[in-house]
Specification:
Number of strands: 8
Radius of gyration: 26 Å
Largest sheet: 4 strands, antiparallel
Structural class: alpha+beta
Number of domains: 2
Number of helices: 7
Strand order of the largest sheet: 4-1-6-7
């Protein structure tokens, strides 16, 4: 008589979404407990973290559906923990990020360029993208400087001409005024960071920008840039070369006022 051993079923590993939901609930509950122990309201946390109340509440309640992509969630959890006096980097590292799945036809990937990539190729590609972004920013700033120089030359010529200012049209006067007062910045994100940009007293952008992002802003009077990770942000003002705003993980705020060119 033959005996057959029943094959035991292997436990099914939870999906990455299920892991993220479970871990978010644990981390959010701990953050809520710490906040209550410090007698801080969510409104007070908004002022400390610059994160909206809706996002903070979603983190505490473990509501994954009301939050952005996982890489941003981890950054938001870090800011939340830092504001409560906890090591945000270590605390947020428990939140699983997972990795996107890419489906290829069977055996087709072996004949594709993607299948031939190696870590060193990806590193070279990343460096090339950064170089291209910096080069594009430099060309943009040089173009703006050339336009400003041409406008200044036209203004100087009009002063030397026997014609008086009454011969200038309103459009020309407005263009001269813009050249005299405009200030422009460009930022390149070396790593994912929260950033806020205020243009002439009004908030033009506030949020988390991913690594490799390139953005520019222009103001007639003043530009203010604030970030929670000064080491992850390269900033260029007008014709200047991009410079790091400060040390990694540090909060930094920079105000740049427009100055007349004439």
């Amino acid at each position: 008589m033959k005996w057959f051993r029943r094959k035991e079923k292997q436990p099914i590993k939870p999906s990455i979404e299920a892991q993220q939901t479970e871990k978010l609930a644990q981390l959010g509950a701990q953050l809520s407990l710490w906040r209550q122990e410090k007698n801080l309201s969510l409104e007070e946390l908004v002022g400390l973290t610059r994160i909206s109340r809706r996002i903070l509440q979603a983190i505490e309640e473990g509501n994954l559906a009301d939050l952005p992509e996982p890489v941003y969630i981890q950054s938001l959890i870090k800011q939340f923990a830092d504001a409560l006096g906890v090591n945000g980097v270590d605390f947020a590292s428990d939140f699983p990020l997972g990795s996107p799945k890419i489906n290829f036809p069977q055996n087709a990937w072996k004949n594709t360029f993607v299948g031939q990539l190696r870590p060193v190729h990806l590193y070279i590609l990343y460096i090339s993208l950064i170089f291209f972004s910096v080069n594009s920013l430099s060309n943009l700033l040089n173009k703006a400087a050339l336009q400003a120089s041409n406008s200044q030359s036209q203004l100087q010529s009009s002063k030397e001409s026997p014609l008086t200012s009454q011969h200038l049209t309103s459009n020309n006067l407005q263009a001269i005024k813009s050249v005299e007062q405009a200030v422009q910045i460009g930022v390149i994100l070396k790593s994912s960071s929260w950033i806020r940009v205020v243009v002439d007293g009004k908030t033009d952008f506030e949020g988390v920008l991913p690594q490799g992002t390139y953005r520019t802003w222009k103001a007639q009077e003043q530009l203010t840039v604030k970030t929670n990770n000064a080491g992850g942000v390269l900033m260029s003002v007008n014709q200047q070369a991009p410079k790091q705003m400060g040390e990694p993980g540090k909060i930094e705020e920079v105000r740049i006022a427009a100055k007349p060119r004439i």
